[in-house]
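Sharing a chain and its predicted structure for anyone who wants a worked example. Both blocks are below, sequence first, tokens second.
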Amino acid sequence: MPPRGSKARREEIVRLARSTGLASVEELSSQFGVTASTIRRDLSLLTEQGLIARTYGGAMALSQQSESSLRQRAQQGFEAKHAIARWAARQVQPGETILLDAGTTVGAMGSYLGHIPGLTVVVAGLTALEALADADDVRVECIGGTLRHLSQGFVGPLAEATIERLTFDRAFLGADAVSAEFGICEAAMEQTRLKELMMARAEHIYVLAHAEKLGRRPFHAWAPIPPGATLVTDIQATDEQVASFAPVSVQVVRALDRTTDAAGTG
């Protein structure tokens, strides 16, 4: 028997989604004996709560996992993240204007940039901002906007308006996951919209993601990676993972650990 009450129905929708991954409005309407409009309201509320992700055409796809907080992610893959951050920081030249996205891997770059003369860094999240707080010789600009507490990054119309009025020599972007087929995966479309604007305004684009993020699809919001961009990952990335990006003309660099001063390129 279908659960009674809106709260119980929504809980069951989430449970079903985690087991099946995809359901249509019509299927849920029939299963729970309510109108399609009621189901759409349920889906809208669950989307706002971060429990599901919607697809186009009235169908809905449910995330197989919830978005973890930035603090939860901070110690995950620590060595790999800093290997990536060090390699990325070495690409920055004196006098450039660069963009640092939100996220722990990109944020880690901040501690490696203080020695670069004439540098301007535009930050899109609190992690990079904190890392650069004591870098007196670096000009730091913050894009502002609405703070997403889980990612500690800024999003929304104010953030987008700032990005649209700037250009960057290099943009360094984070990701919840990266796919050769779909691009950068994030938990919310407002995040992927902002990343698309960032990539459009940068001369050189770098996506920073450790190997565990490659080929995964934890959410259903995507930002395509343009040809010519560079994906920076770590040495745990397999040849198969690296090779998947060749057909879309994305270069892949496998950053080595702290005992070396080079990077492996795939």
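Comments welcome. Confidence is low (pLDDT under 50) at residues 62-75, 259-264.
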